[in-house]
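Wait, mind explaining this?

_____
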Amino acid sequence: MNQIDTSQLVELQNGEVTTTSLQVAIASGKNHKNVLEAIDNIIEDLGSAEKSATLEMFQESTYIHEQNHQSYRMYVLNRDGWTMLMGYFKGKRYTMFRYKYMKQFNAMEAYIKEQEQHSFFIPETVDQQLTREKLAISRQRSVNARSREVRAWAKLTDNSEEVAKAVAPKMLSQLLDIPEVDLLETK
């Protein structure tokens, strides 16, 4: 097998690592016709019992030939489809080919996982941050207003114990966001 550029054997398509029957044919040195035939055989062997699996593994597509600009069929393969197809690539000459493909699938999948982890920690947009800070300021102002109200009631009552007992549960309930009934319960 000739040295063929295997730097880009796989690609990301709709969030899944894929390759194509054409890429496999070019990288392996096989005729695309033979690769298509192998995939058709796999689909036939799996039959209707595994129809949904074959549709996931092998999605029929087309490509435009560079020289004659005609449309030809090909398959888009996910990792499982590629693994099934590799059963048709026997012999020592395909060992390095399979290994390079496997490395690229692994690298792309690791990249996807890394991106998913980073997307969990996406920083807020400026608008989101402003909204969050405005909400926090509004909450703090509300707490401050309640606190001022409690102090005002305390001054109005001249710190009278009777008035404080009558008004305190209501004021503390508002200030602490606790039901007044819970403040009056004795244990």
